[in-house]
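Data deposition worksheet. Section B asks for the primary sequence of the deposited chain exactly as it was used as input, without tags or linkers unless they were present during the calculation. Section C holds the resulting structure in token form. Section D is free text for depositor observations; keep each observation to a single sentence. Incomplete worksheets are returned to the depositor.
Section A, Depositor: J.P.
Section B:
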Amino acid sequence: MLFLLNDVVFDLDQTCPVSAVDARRFERLGLDYVVELGCELFSEDPMLHRNDPERARRLAWLIAARSPDVNAALFAAPEAGCPADLVEPRFCALPQTAMQQLHRRDERGRLDAVAADKAVWNRMAA
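Section C:
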């Protein structure tokens, strides 16, 4: 499964980003808790998806495990070190063909925040 997190596409079908023991521990976490965790992570580092891709991949995996229809998430933080409640989370379900196109663009180094926004989020359109 491909998952877009901000402007990076992760392939979640690769080896599980957490151990089997951790996966069982995470089973109890609800989507609300995972979203709150994502907001906290991105409030600390708005570029988490670029600066710590393994941690970002685990977050994407947690979101997908809690909400299988969702394959894209955006955590927009105004600045590093901001309060977590200022991080704006968004989620959507993109068609598989759109995800594959985004994945190809990401592999070629042509997917950035502006391109992802134009293709998915439309935050800059206003």
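Section D:
The CA atoms of residues 33 and 39 lie 10 Å apart.
The beta strands are 2-5, 8-11, 72-76, 88-92.
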